[in-house]
Amino acid sequence: MLTATVKATVKATVKRRTLSLAAAVALPALMTSAVLALAGPAPAAQARPADQAVLGSDLAGTGRVSIAITSMNPQFAGPGATVTVAGTISNDTRQTEAGLDVQLYSSPTGFSSRDGMDSFLSQGVDSDLEAAGSPFLLPTSVKPGATAHWSASFAVNAMGMSEFGVYPMLAQLQLVDDIAGRVLTSAQTLLPFWPGQRAAGLLSPLNISWLWPLVDQPHHQVCPALTNNGLAASLNPGGRLSALVTAGVSHPDADLTWFIDPALLSDVATMTSRYAVGGTSTCTHSTSEPASKAAVSWLATVKTATSSQPTVIAPYANVDMTALVHQGLNADLASAYSTGDAVARSILRQRFTPTIAWPPGGTADLSFLTSLATAEKIGTVVLNSSEMPPADTAVYQPDDAVASITTGAGTSMNVLLADDTLTGVLAAGDTSSGVLSGSEQFAVEQRFLAETAMIAAEAPDSARSVVLAPPENWSPSQALASDLLTETAAAPWLKPAALSSLPTAHDTERAVRRQAPPASQESPGQLSRSYLGPVKSLGIGLSTYKSMLFGANPSYLQSLDEALSAAESAAWRGGGAAQGQALAGHLQEYLRSAENKVSIITSAEVPMAGTSGQIPVSIQNGLLRQTIEVRVNASAENTPGRPSQLTIGRSAGKLVQVQPGEAVTVRLPVSSAPQGSTVIRLSLSSADGTPLPFTRTQLTVESTRYGRAILFLIGAAIGVLVLTSVYRGVRRRLSDDGQVVYEEGDPPGSVVTGTSAQHPTEAPDDLADARRWADDA
Hints:
Low-confidence stretches: 1-61, 738-777
Radius of gyration: 43 Å
Structural class: alpha/beta
Shape: elongated
Helix content: 25-40%
Largest sheet: 6 strands, mixed
Mean pLDDT: 85
Oligomer: single chain
Distance between the termini: 121 Å
Strand content: 15-25%
């Protein structure tokens, strides 16, 4: 019989059970030793008569004596099996402990629900527990700081196990000669029992699908250099990414589905030859690193795996999809998808059509799902099971992964619900060092087996599915990852299946009515408005910069898109915001430097003698590799009330191509310039009309209007000269005898001989007066 506490829990779970993530994360502590608990030591279990005392601390009061379970063979029992449980005893007190033994306890009655298992693991209490087998007496004492090993066995037939399900298993450390029968501590675990296909009465094995994540934080920037060399350790043998790939390719029978961030592929591909790390926003001062053999091997293995196994390609940098849609950056999400597809296709040499999406954190609202279905044509999405609980919580519904929703656009979308409890179990096996203790690894593996067995056993006459979606940055040891996939393929109640097959697989529970995701709600931890606001402005600037480039290399344009997506990655949720902001700042500085190299060069003041003319304007392209195609925009600031206004000819707006490192001069035709100063504002725009605000400048036209006056005076002077010359020629012809003819006004008696005369033969400079008038005008 179950205790009153457990009975109450079981009755409550007839409605529905959802294990909290906190409890799941504490799993290794609860299953291995009280001292390993996350929130503090768990109380020691009481499995003997109620009059026996329980010790929750060591005898000396300065530490603890703890017990842990590190293995169980076999991990699931069958009829006639003998189960051997082994583990360790650690003495963290200041005195030697002697006279210790370990007694196993179990029950002939299995759990009736997953909540019953949760309660047992957290409390270790069950009045139905019975001693299983003989106690293991430690042959020697345990000195302070020392660890001893123990091993005990029992026969499942003697315990009375017979039905398919999960049974409690408790290892209790006690003092042999203590009259009070005090219990020092205990550790508990779970034992699945499989009586065989016919006896189990299982209609069909449980379809089980893995999403196997190959995701890392982006290391890409617009410069060829990586931001840091953190990937190197992860790709080396024993590293996180190495462990995931090695375990995945070693178990093709697990039929897992790879979930790959193309940004990771790009970063690793960069490392396959000599590569740069760090540097400034202008792509200088980076550090050179030799080609990584681990990167070459890892990438080759991934190519082989994805060529024969199902693969889901994430949008580039695994961008925070929900945050982008909520902030109106749908175009950025579309760009991340297209960029990711291009990167994956070029590196893996395959074409991937996005049909399945896994939002970061497995959470989403209906507005996001509608956008995903309509804009990206996604037909299936993977969410946490807590996102869509059954509509009727008063009626028990077996756990199942297959569901569907109607989007806001009226279309149907398949939803695959990743089991929350199992996600927490997998997260408990996370490690930053790549190594787990024996007790921690055993706890995760055994809990995985027990949870899946309980799901199958709770409704054996149904056909259902379960989806496993570890955290995107999951970091298990290679041994744990490999063992989990081994259990996936070996457990008789499980049948590995590709994720994409689940929506069409036989499933008797898919018709269960479920609560729809909220219409509009931010996902927990998604990138905030304050974070994405500057990134949004950065995206606008990036589009402006790209619009002026002519014939740019597609790989260069793609690198710009990649850099923007990297700043929008879900990796920057929570404590990673500073790193994401650094990436965005790097791209901002790169754009600012590039934009400053494109400018309009002209004089601050341009004099104009007449009312029309051409003003020279130079377009300078200081970019080293990029040709630009722009047009000059000019507008005059005319002053109201002037009799005439300066106008600029239409030819000013013609497209101009400027090669890298060169300048091209454009002449702006202007006319009707009024006398005085007129300001002309200049700027450039791209071929599609996008303004380039960083090129704005101005010049001043100073119009004197001397041109017409000078021409009039010069013409008049020339006329006077011609008339004078004609007059004098006529006068000379009238004198036949060679005598001098007196001009009117000459005084009588004047004589002109030789070169001396009262008046010269020609008038003084006939143009002198004309020049003097012009100077006085």
